Amino acid sequence: MTRAEWVRSQIRSPWHWGSMLALWGLGYYTLGWAGRGHMTAAMAGWGLFLLVETASMLWTMLAFAGAMLFLSRIFPPAAIIFLIIGIVFFILRIRYVIQNAQLLASGFLVYLVYYHLFADHMHLGGKLVEACYKLVTLNHLFALSWQLRHFLAYLAILLAAGLPVLLVHLFLWMAYRKGYESRNALTVLFGLPLVVISFLLPFLKILGAFDGAAFTDAGHGGHMAPDGFHGTGDGYAPTGDHPVPVHHVNGYFRSTPGGGTTYVHPHVATNPDGILENNLSYHGPHPQPGPADAPHAPAGAGHTVHGPNVDTVPGLGKEKKEKEL
């Protein structure tokens, strides 16, 4: 198949002419009726059009992000591994942009044209319709009946909506000459917002992982501390005859002095009330010899519990387990 035959076959494909007709119809409806209280319907139509055109790219992104989020919630220490995978895909996305640079740039111009047409209450779009109306009426060179002028007004809107479609058709024709298939070319041309999101996604995951909120159970209320996200839930644990105020701490990631990254499992901790004896890890004082009449706190006045388990994330830092008191 020659290049001309390939281009002709792609232009005749249902994806190409169907997309061009849909784009033309959306432009016609937006220019003619969006300013008359139908803006919501026009925006819904544009959103549906973009969803259809970028469906393959969108489903792939959602499936990948959903799988990473699901697996990281089942096994939180593996979140860092998934971040590394995300960075690898980030690098591959750079290669994707380089390979499709011309078509992505064309897509940017298409978005820019439609933005300026519809922005500022369609100021520029209205001027384009007015210019097209002067063209179809020959600048009112002849006296026309009201019915004919009304018909030509709709024709002017149709012509104004078709001009950007011709630009899109030209960009796609250039892509077909480079060997693109119609479906892939349309996805790349209108998929620029998804490409931008795919670049930002790994960085959002990195920020979420290291503040402990993206891949851990943050369903409880909490506060941010230098060593991670601490969830809180008021409660009391008995210590002798007096209740000790405690709170629940969700699992979180933290950095170790050796440069590694550890995952601290969910646990219960006392509220910071400044009373040493209320600390759950308090084992009691170690009295020193002194005057016989000198009072001292009784040994074992505190309630002893084990501290949270801390797991070192595989592949990062030293392979060890430690206890936090």
Furnish the topology, listing elements before pairings.
Blueprint (H helix, E strand, L loop, with lengths): L2 H9 L2 H20 L5 H15 L1 H20 L4 H21 L1 H36 L9 H32 L4 H9 L1 H19 L10 E5 L2 E5 L2 E5 L2 E8 L2 E4 L5 E4 L2 E4 L38 E4 L8 E3 L2
Antiparallel strand pairs: 1-2, 3-4, 4-7, 5-6, 6-8, 8-9
Please explain how this structure is put together.
The chain is elongated and about 105 Å long. β1 and β2 (228-232) form a beta hairpin. It has two domains: 3-210, no CATH class; 221-284 and 297-323, no CATH class. The protein has 325 residues and is of the alpha+beta class. The chain has nine helices and nine strands. The strands form three sheets. A four-stranded antiparallel β-sheet has the order 5-6-8-9, with no helix packed on it. Strands 3-4-7 form a three-stranded antiparallel β-sheet, with no helix packed on it. A two-stranded antiparallel sheet has the order 1-2.
